[in-house]
Amino acid sequence: MAHQFEVVVVGSGPAGYVAAIKAAQLGKKTAIVEKWVKEDGKTTWGGTCLNVGCIPSKALLESSEKYAQTLHEFDVHGISVKSPKMDVAKMLARKDGIVDQLTGGVAGLLKGNGVTSFEGKGSLKANKVVEVAKHDGTVETIQAENVILAMGSIPVEIPPTPTDGDIIVDSTGALEFSEVPKRLGVIGAGVIGLELGSVWARLGSDVVVLEAMDSFLAAADGAISKDVYKHFNKPGFEIRLGARVTGSTIKGKQVEVTFQDSEGEKTEIFDKLVVAVGRRPYTEGCLSDDSGVKLDERGFIFVDDQCRTTVPGVYAIGDVVRGPMLAHKGSEEGIMVAEIIAGHNAKMNYDAIPSVIYTHPEIAWVGKTEEQLKAEGVDYKAGAFPFAAIGRAMAANDTTGQVKILADAKTDRVLGMHIFGLGASEMIAQGVIALEFASSAEDLQLTCFAHPTLSEAVHEAALAVDNIAIHKVNRKKR
Question: Which cysteine-cysteine pairs are annotated as disulfide bonds in the entry (predicted)?
Answer without folding.
Answer: 49-54
